[in-house]
Structure prediction request, 314 residues.
Amino acid sequence: MLIAGPNLTTDRTLSIDELRPGEVLRFSTATITPGGKGVNVARVARAMGFPAVLVALAPGRTGRAVVELLGDEGFAVVPVGTGGEVRAASVILEESGRVTVLNEPGPAVAEGEWEAYERTVETNLSGHEFLVCIGSLPPGTPPDAYARLVRMARSRGVRALVDAAGAQLAAALEAGPELATPNLAEAEGILLGTESTPVDDGSPDLRPRALDAASEVVARGAGTALVTAGAAGVAVVAAASEPWWVEAPHVERRNPIGAGDSLVAGLVGTLEHGGDLNEGVRMGVAAAAASVETEIAGVVNAERVRALAAELDG
Prediction:
């Protein structure tokens, strides 16, 4: 798969007994890794044995450093140099299980930089069955950035998946991606015209809401929609077939960040290796469940993923 994950980060995964705003706090552990949704997809794909290439913006010296770190992990990365410096994301894990994420926006994209990124994606499309367009985009990016990539991919016979939010997701759906994988908050955000807000995993109406949202995402242009509803499961709606629901396995939750990215990696990797949609969805759900058991986003154990997928098959 070719991954268009423009907005790299340095992830700081930090552990603390309790986060208390307004105080001077000391973390018990700190793990620094390359991050961003595209990196999470690539990391899970690599763990599962699915070949993947990441095309990313690499702002300044810190962007080049992140690309070098990814190379040290064995990832295939095609960087596009830009101005500014790479953003950081702080993932704060408390003993209670609460997770707080502090995301920076990333440096603004200057005139011509997005066009250079598009040309790089286009140059690398050959030989790939899927283009995965995933994650936030830095300030200054065209409002239809992912839509443009979807149209480019389709014109060259490459299937496209979009995992985005807000105006970028709405525009991309109009371009007709083969797959769209928003979470419920993102899907309802564009359908209701409201800002995305967190969804309560325990809400009794999650399943019908997710199924309705997935149906609307397909009506807006996606060939197939997977709308994730956190620990509850995933609604799947494909054109010309009956909607269905996959309940997520019950696992010990340590860090839910990157679960949706893990789902994308398992789904697309399975489809590229000849699996059908049913197999792809279950492998994706299993990868998502396995990822929340670990502290670092995008880290999974392949044997654990396969074991959870076998449970879902059963």
In short: The first strand starts at residue 2 and ends at 7. The mean pLDDT is 94. Residues 277-292 form the longest helix (16 residues). The two ends are 28 Å apart (CA to CA).
